[in-house]
Every structure is written in structure tokens, then in C-alpha cells.
């Protein structure tokens, strides 16, 4: 039904415009006939001729006005369509600038803006923010054994899998290689660690790609009012390094320094 409505409106507009052209043609024909008849036979008195001419003129003007209205409505409709297309195109372009091409997670450009905003919220409103960094264990070996196409497919599926298991208010970012970051506003480090541990267990027990099984190492930290973006990231990276050194497939939490 909705798909037919624009076509029906267009057909109706075409019919109305054709009808208005017919009326204009009829008015011109009558006007010509009236003048011709008067010049040949003189059958109309000047007063009647003037009144009839005025009626024809008013009818013609009204018809022309209707035509102008139809054209104007068509122009407005096209402008609305162009505006909607421009908005959709703008949304797509804006999305492309913040989305990682491969995994469809947010990219590092988006991370910078979200992180800056959340750190400001911590300083101004005492908000709580936790971060989780995780990395695929042995990702280089997976690429070498199964091929880079399989590795890319694995990254995409992992990002989708994690995105479905975090809150709508959380953010998943592709960092580099097989490494990702989750920013989780309004939860503290203890809760974030529970989330990280659940993710670790689920990934360990879920085959990805072409039946590829793997594990992830994770680190967790909580934002502080003294943090810069670099300090926050450094704590996450330190925790991830500790998790790798501990034997992989585990969660390490790095609390912020005490104020």
C-alpha cells in the first residue's frame, strides 16, 4: 500500500495538470471564437461581449493559478525528496567515518570522541566509567594456519558476537589487529571484571569462522578524574600484557591510582 501511494499521487497530479491544460485551451478557443464571431457577424452587444470576455479571463487566470500550484507542489515534493536523500547520504558518510570497515565496530576516531566526553563526565559529574581491552590469543598463528581471509572473517564474527552481549549503552571499538576495547559507562571495575570473565568463558567455548576455536586475554580498569586518555589506555595495555604473561585466556584488572 505505501509503495503505491507515491505513484498514485504522481498520476493524480499528471491528470490534474492535463485537465488544466485542456481548460486553458478551451478558454483560448472560446475567446478566439467569440472575437471571430463578433468581427464577422457583430452578434454581441459591447456590454455582453465585455462581460463574457471578463468571465473567460477570470476562468483562464484561475486555471493558470491551479497550474502554478501544481507545479509549485511538484517542486516542493522534489525538494523534500532531495533533502531526504541528502540527509540519508550525510548519515551514511558520518557512519563511515566512525565505523571500522572490517569488523563494523567503532573505530579509533570514534574512541577519541567518546573517551574525551566520558572523562569530562567523570571530572564534572563524578560519573563512573570502566574499560575492557581484549586481544585474541595467538592471532598471528591463526592467520598463518588458516589464512588471512579466515582471520578477517573471525574478527568480524567476534565483533558481532561481543556487540550482541554488551549493553546498548556500551561501546565496542576495534583497536588494532585482534585487539578491541569496550567502554562501559556507569559500571565500576568490579562489575566490568564480571562482564570480562563472562566474555572470556563464552569465547573460549564458541567456535568462530570455519570452526576455529580460540581464547582471548582481557584487562579491566576504571576511569579516574586524574586520567588522561593516554593514562587510561596505558593501564589497560599494562593489564593486557600481564594477562598474556600469565599464560593468556585470563582477566587482569588494574585499579586506578588512589586519589
Biggest sheet character: 5 strands, mixed
Instruction: Report the uncertain regions.
Output: none
Highest-level CATH class of the largest domain: Alpha Beta
For the largest sheet, list the strands in their spatial order. Answer: 2-3-1-4-5
Give me a quick take on this structure:
With 259 residues, the chain is α+β, with helices and mostly antiparallel strands. The chain has seven helices and five strands.
Protein model, in words:
- This protein is of the alpha+beta class and 259 residues long.
- The chain has two domains: 4-98; 108-253, Reverse transcriptase/Diguanylate cyclase domain (Alpha-Beta Plaits), CATH 3.30.70.
- Helices cover 64% and strands 12% of the residues.
- It has helices spanning 4-40, 46-98, 108-125, 139-146, 148-163, 189-204, 229-245, and strands at 129-136, 171-176, 179-185, 216-222, 251-253.
- It has a five-stranded mixed sheet with strand order 2-3-1-4-5, with helices on both faces.
- α1 (4-40) packs antiparallel against α2.
- The mean pLDDT is 83.
Topology:
Blueprint: H1 4-40, H2 46-98, H3 108-125, E1 129-136, H4 139-146, H5 148-163, E2 171-176, E3 179-185, H6 189-204, E4 216-222, H7 229-245, E5 251-253
Parallel strand pairs: 4-5
Antiparallel strand pairs: 1-3, 1-4, 2-3
Helix pairs in contact: 1-2, 4-5
Amino acid at each position: 500500500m505505501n509503495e503505491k501511494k507515491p505513484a498514485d499521487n504522481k498520476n493524480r497530479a499528471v491528470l490534474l495538470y492535463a485537465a488544466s491544460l485542456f481548460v486553458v485551451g478551451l478558454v483560448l478557443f472560446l475567446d478566439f471564437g467569440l472575437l471571430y464571431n463578433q468581427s464577422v457577424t457583430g452578434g454581441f452587444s459591447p456590454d455582453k461581449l465585455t462581460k463574457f470576455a471578463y468571465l473567460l479571463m477570470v476562468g483562464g487566470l484561475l486555471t493558470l493559478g491551479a497550474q502554478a500550484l501544481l507545479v509549485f507542489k511538484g517542486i516542493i515534493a522534489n525538494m523534500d525528496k532531495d533533502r531526504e536523500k541528502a540527509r540519508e547520504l550525510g548519515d551514511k558518510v558520518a557512519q563511515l567515518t566512525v565505523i571500522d570497515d572490517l569488523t563494523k565496530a567503532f573505530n579509533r576516531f570514534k574512541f577519541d570522541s567518546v573517551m574525551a566526553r566520558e572523562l569530562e563526565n567523570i571530572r564534572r559529574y563524578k560519573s563512573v566509567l570502566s574499560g575492557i581491552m581484549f586481544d585474541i590469543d595467538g592471532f598471528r598463528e591463526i592467520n598463518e594456519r588458516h589464512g588471512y581471509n579466515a582471520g578477517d572473517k573471525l574478527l568480524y564474527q567476534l565483533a558481532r558476537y561481543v556487540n550482541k552481549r554488551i549493553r546498548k549503552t556500551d561501546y565496542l571499538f576495534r583497536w588494532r589487529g585482534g585487539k578491541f576495547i569496550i567502554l562501559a559507562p556507569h559500571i565500576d571495575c568490579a562489575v566490568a571484571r564480571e562482564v570480562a570473565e563472562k566474555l572470556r568463558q563464552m569465547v573460549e567455548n564458541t567456535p568462530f569462522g570455519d570452526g576455529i576455536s580460540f581464547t582471548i586475554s582481557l584487562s579491566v580498569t576504571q576511569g579516574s578524574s586524574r586520567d588522561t586518555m593516554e593514562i587510561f589506555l596505558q593501564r589497560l595495555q599494562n593489564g593486557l600484557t600481564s594477562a598474556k604473561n600469565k599464560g593468556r585466556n585470563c582477566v587482569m584488572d588494574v585499579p586506578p591510582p588512589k586519589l
